Amino acid sequence: MRYIFVIFSLVFLTFSAGLAQVDTLGADSTLLNIAPPAPISNLTVYDKANDHGHALILEWKPSPDDAAGKNTVMMYEIYRSESPDGPFENIGSVPSGNSRYDNIGILEKEARDYIPDNTDLYYRVDAVTINPEIRTSSEIFGPVRSYSNWFHRGRVPVLFAVLIFGGLMMYFVSVARKGAELYVRPLAGIAAVDDAIGRATEMGRPILYILGLGTADMISTIASFTILSRVAKQVAEYQTQLIVPCYDPIVMTVAQEVVKSSYLDAGHPDAYNDDMVFYITTNQFAYVAAVNGIMMRELPATNVYMGKFYAESLILAETGAVAGSIQIAGTDEVGQLPFFIVACDYTLIGEELYAASAYLGREPLMLGSLKAQDYAKAAVIILSILGIIAANFGWTAFTNIFKVLD
Question: Thinking of the domain 41-144, which architecture would CATH place it in?
Answer without folding.
Answer: Sandwich (2.60)
